[in-house]
Amino acid sequence: MTAHFGSCLCGTVSFEVTGDFDGLYLCHCQFCQKDTGSAHAANLFSQSAKLAWLSGEDAVTSFTLPGTRHNKSFCKLCGSALPSTQIPGLLNVPAGSLDSEISMVPTAHIFSSSKAVWDEGLGDLPKFEGLPD
User: What is the dihedral of CA 95, 100, 106, 111, to 10 degrees?
Assistant: First the structure.
């Protein structure tokens, strides 16, 4: 059985996901843009993997946008996105919350009709190892 480990930015919350992910989706919906402050969210989904909080479970909180299924779980100390089980039968793990590497590449872009206008042709931009000079 595959085990993946993750944590929040401040290290208060740590978790283990046991099992396999069904897909890695880059979500461009307006809700995910607001959640991340970026062009999209990168979320791993599984219908069978199990989540176990290893530390800091009491620091995990969540927000569900009224009238929607959109939910975000996060550390109430540092704000880092964390796994969510708010949709019954579906585990949602923010890919950036994992400390262990995954070999999965993104499965698809979703809600591309809401894509930010500045999220085009990004592959042609210069690349820097750190902050530009």
Answer: -10
Tell me the residue type at 107: T
The CATH number of residue 8's host domain is 2.170.150.70
In a domain, 132, yes or no: no
On whether residue 55 sits in a domain, the answer given is: yes
Residue 117: what pLDDT? 86
Q: The sheet that has 23-27: what strands, in order across it?
A: 91-94, 41-46, 23-27, 108-110
**Total structural domains in the chain?**
1
Between CA 66 and CA 31, with CA 27 as vertex, the angle to 5 degrees is 25
Which ranges of the chain have pLDDT less than 70?
A: none
Report the distance separating Cα 38 and Cα 30, nearest Å. 10
Contact assessment for residue 114 and residue 45, using Cβ atoms and an 8 Å cutoff: no
Residue range of the domain that includes 32: 3-116
Rounded CA separation 48/22 (Å): 9
C-alpha span between 99 and 91 (Å, rounded): 17
53 within domain boundaries: yes
**Is 123 a member of any domain?**
no
Biggest distance spanned by C-alpha atoms of the chain:
47
